[in-house]
Amino acid sequence: MNTFNLKLLTLLFVSVTCLYFCSDKLNVFPILMLGDSLTDSSILEYNNQPISTIKKCQKIKNVAMVKTHKCAGDMMASLLLRFAENHKLEVLLPERPSSVVGYSMKPQFRIQNPSRLPNGKFQVMALHTMYNYNYWNSIMETPFTLIGLTREPLSQFRSYFYYTREYFHGENRIESKEEGLSTVLEQLQLLVKGDIKKIDGFDARRYQNIMFVDFGGYDIKEDIDVTNYVQQISNNFSVLIVNEMFDESLVVLKNKLSWNWEDVVYQKMNVAKSSAMISFTQQEKEAHRLFSPKDYLLYEESVKKLNKDIEKIKNFNEQLSEFKMLNKKVSSFCQNANTVNAAISHLFVKDVKYNCNGFFNITNFDCKKVSQGILQYVKFHIDQKEKYK
């Protein structure tokens, strides 16, 4: 062996030894960043297993989501934008930070922030825009997976009403949102009976079949066409996330897209206070069902589809328990990450049965990602585009 080769081997041995024994201080190893795919052929070992031999998830990465109004859309959008960041995917973005990329009754919208990919396509859509498959298919990398969000319609109506505060202006100004909602629902009962033609000071059409419109059904009128369209949505969307079964929906999403638990852990955002969660009378429920029948059809089909998907997943209840346990640990770890336990560099959980790598690992840095809001993510992705143009 010549002198050069001997020096090279000695240098390699010293480097690997230093990396192994100094890793805790350097915070280099065994840290694995959230979303890393473990494709490195490094000789370093993790849990006495070469990284190159650890099982890898063949993740589905091209994803387009219908971000319906007030259906946990910000949480899901942040989750998808985090996934896009971790996997360096091209995202459909507005020109400046916003949760909307294009929303109108037209079948397509102007792309404000062009793709950097050679073919001009996008890999992730996560912001507000009305669903239109033909147009989406023309701007997305194919094949891509469709995700939709739904919520119990009257609960969504309440949340959207509180958000827009439409009835609190002008001559009919009402200070209390609870009183405003009660007044509108009372008027709504008269409207569906035909006793009145409109609700003064309130644009009722804006609140009618909100989810169905977001899913692109704004011009579908006939009952048979509505039923067929809802069935098309059920058939074409890989996952229809149900707000009232959010964790269950994410377990289904994780299975269908071959993701890791690190990809779907979350922290709650924009959750209404308990004082806002008033109950409804039977008359109010019936009136709203008559007012927005398409939303109820869509929601009930979503619940039906989700339950069918759950039945197809082996050991679903075990997976759900594992996910809830990990999400709880993440919440606790991330709450402490910026306070008394800031020195703890990462949360590592071994023997994670339903993660394809067999373990779960996130870092302090990942906590910032998990808790980051949608506008922060949009700004990040816009800045990245500007930086690497």
Provide a brief overview of the structure.
By secondary structure, the chain is an alpha/beta fold.
Write the layout of secondary structure elements.
Layout: H1 3-21, H2 23-26, E1 45-46, E2 49-50, E3 63-66, H3 73-86, E4 100-102, E5 124-125, E6 128-129, H4 133-139, E7 145-150, H5 153-164, H6 177-193, H7 210-214, H8 223-236, E8 239-242, H9 246-257, H10 261-264, H11 282-291, H12 293-312, H13 316-337, E9 346-350, E10 359-363, H14 364-371, H15 374-387
Parallel strand pairs: 3-5, 3-7, 4-6, 7-8
Antiparallel strand pairs: 1-2, 9-10
Describe the structure.
This protein is of the alpha/beta class and 389 residues long. The protein has two domains: 1-25; 63-314, P-loop containing nucleotide triphosphate hydrolases (Rossmann fold, 3-Layer(aba) Sandwich). It has helices at 3-21, 23-26, 73-86, 133-139, 153-164, 177-193, 210-214, 223-236, 246-257, 261-264, 282-291, 293-312, 316-337, 364-371, 374-387; strands at 45-46, 49-50, 63-66, 100-102, 124-125, 128-129, 145-150, 239-242, 346-350, 359-363. A hairpin with an 8-residue loop joins strand 9 (346-350) and strand 10. The longest helix is centred in the last third of the chain and has 22 residues, at 316-337. Mean pLDDT is 82; it is low at 12-54.
List keywords for this structure.
2 domains, 10 strands, alpha/beta, about 10% strand, Rossmann fold, about 400 residues, two-stranded antiparallel ribbon, four-stranded parallel β-sheet
